[in-house]
Every structure is written in structure tokens, then in C-alpha cells.
């Protein structure tokens, strides 16, 4: 496939040989967390429909502990650092649309830091998304009068979180749920008695939640 501004991995069914047939398929974007790479989110591929276009994207910033991140977490984290990472993700999405030959809302799954990036983009441009999965992650709150609050189009959100998560406490997931519900976003929260990962209950919830995207 064509080289884009960020490294990516893509799965397009053999039946989607032209832009018209590709446009008829659901599109899923996988966004990894801190110190991840283009492959780490592919474990969620099996929870998504086979007849779908699935894209995993790699963050741009090399991380001090290995892998890549959307913004550097060593030292002070500024809003501009976060927004810079989100802008690079948004630019990649435009490139992806151009390459695939269509433009339509898509479903996205983000893990940890990746879900934070998606939460910012969802508040800026809610119409981009049909469904969003926040996995072991958090919602980064934008301005009080963000576009999500004003939009008539609201993506559905699934939050999956471990009750024993020491990296991102469950309280952050609960706070994110309240924040999104205040913006009239339909949110489902599924918890699992595990740490900073997605367990069997979460995987089942992902399959149920995203399996019907069309």
C-alpha cells in the first residue's frame, strides 16, 4: 500500500478491489498506547468483523522506554504536546481517506494513551466517529464548550477498564464516563478484575459492541 506520514498496518478483504467496494465496508482504526508500535493493537482484530477494513497506526514519537508514543510523558506534559500528537493522527486519517478513496465515519479503538488521543479528536470532530473504544484509558477534557457538546452527532462509546489497574486507575474511567454522559454521549462501561490490560470480559464486550458497525 501507499506510504503515508505514519507507519501503519492495514487489512482489506480480497473482495474490496475498488474504491466503491471498499466504501461499502466498515472501517476500524486501532490506536496504541505509550511505547507501542504498529503491531500491538492487532490482537483486537479478531474481535472485529472479517469483512471490514482494519488499520493500525503507529505513533510518531520514539519513547525513552522503547516503542513509540503520541506525546512524551517524561517531564511536564503540556496541552500543546498532546494536540501536536492528535494533529498528526488527524493528518494520517485524511491521508487514509485519500488512499482508500472514500470519506465516512469510522470506528476507533484506543488503548491507554491512544484512547486519550482519540478522546481529544472526538471532542474536536465528533462526526468523524461512529463508535469509539476507550481501553484501559482515559478521557482528556477539552474546553467546556467543545464541539462534542454542541454536536447533534454523537458517537457511541465503550469504556473497558481493569478494576486493579495501577497505571490508569478505574476512577479515571468512571470520571471519563461522567464527562461524556454530560455531553449526551451514550457510554457503556465494562470492568474486569485485572490490571492495565484488556481481559476476557473486555474482549467479549469489544466484539459485541463493534461487531454491528456498518
Keywords for this entry:
single chain, 214 residues, alpha/beta, Rossmann fold, seven-stranded mixed beta sheet, two-stranded antiparallel ribbon, 31% helix, 21% strand, globular
- Superfamily (CATH H level) name: Alpha/Beta hydrolase fold, catalytic domain
Number of DSSP E strands? 9
Main sheet properties: 7 strands, mixed
User: What is the total number of structural domains?
Assistant: 1
- The helix content is 25-40%
Rough outline: globular
What is the CATH topology assignment? Answer: Rossmann fold
Uncertain segments are none
Helix/strand order: EHEEEEHEHEHEHEH
Structural class: alpha/beta
How large is the count of helical segments?
A: 6
Task: Determine the mean pLDDT.
Answer: 94
List the helices and strands and how they pair.
Blueprint: E1 8-11, H1 19-23, E2 27-31, E3 53-57, E4 61-62, E5 68-69, H2 79-100, E6 106-111, H3 113-124, E7 129-135, H4 147-150, E8 156-162, H5 170-182, E9 187-192, H6 200-210
Parallel strand pairs: 2-3, 2-6, 6-7, 7-8, 8-9
Antiparallel strand pairs: 1-3, 4-5
Helix pairs in contact: 2-3
Mind explaining what this structure looks like?
By secondary structure, this protein is an alpha/beta fold. It has a single domain, classed as Alpha/Beta hydrolase fold, catalytic domain (Rossmann fold). It is 31% helix and 21% strand. The protein is built from 6 helices and 9 strands, in the order βαββββαβαβαβαβα. It has helices at 19-23, 79-100, 113-124, 147-150, 170-182, 200-210, and strands spanning 8-11, 27-31, 53-57, 61-62, 68-69, 106-111, 129-135, 156-162, 187-192. It has a 7-stranded mixed beta sheet with strand order 1-3-2-6-7-8-9, with helices on both faces. Helix 2 packs across helix 3. It is globular, with a radius of gyration of 16 Å. It starts with 7 loop residues before the first strand and ends with a helix. The relative contact order is 0.15. The mean pLDDT is 94.
Amino acid at each position: 500500500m501507499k506510504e503515508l506520514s505514519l507507519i501503519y498496518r492495514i487489512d482489506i478483504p480480497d473482495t474490496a478491489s475498488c474504491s466503491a467496494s471498499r466504501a461499502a465496508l466498515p472501517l476500524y482504526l486501532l490506536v496504541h498506547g505509550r511505547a507501542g508500535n504498529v503491531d500491538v493493537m492487532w490482537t483486537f482484530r479478531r474481535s472485529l468483523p472479517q469483512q471490514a477494513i482494519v488499520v493500525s497506526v503507529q505513533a510518531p514519537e520514539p519513547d525513552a522506554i522503547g516503542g513509540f508514543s503520541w506525546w512524551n510523558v517524561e517531564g511536564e506534559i503540556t496541552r500543546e504536546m498532546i494536540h501536536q500528537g492528535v494533529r498528526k493522527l488527524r493528518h494520517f486519517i485524511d491521508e487514509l481517506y485519500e488512499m482508500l478513496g472514500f470519506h465516512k465515519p469510522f470506528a476507533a479503538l484506543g488503548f491507554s494513551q491512544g484512547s486519550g488521543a482519540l478522546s481529544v479528536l472526538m471532542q474536536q470532530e465528533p462526526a468523524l466517529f461512529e463508535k469509539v473504544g476507550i481501553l484501559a484509558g482515559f478521557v482528556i477534557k477539552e474546553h467546556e464548550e467543545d464541539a462534542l457538546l454542541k454536536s447533534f452527532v454523537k458517537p457511541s462509546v465503550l469504556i473497558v477498564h481493569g478494576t486493579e489497574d495501577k497505571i490508569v486507575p478505574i476512577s479515571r474511567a468512571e470520571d471519563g464516563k461522567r464527562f461524556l454522559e454530560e455531553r449526551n454521549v451514550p457510554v457503556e462501561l465494562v470492568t474486569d478484575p485485572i490490571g492495565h490490560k484488556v481481559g476476557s470480559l473486555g474482549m467479549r464486550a469489544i466484539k459485541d459492541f463493534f461487531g454491528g458497525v456498518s
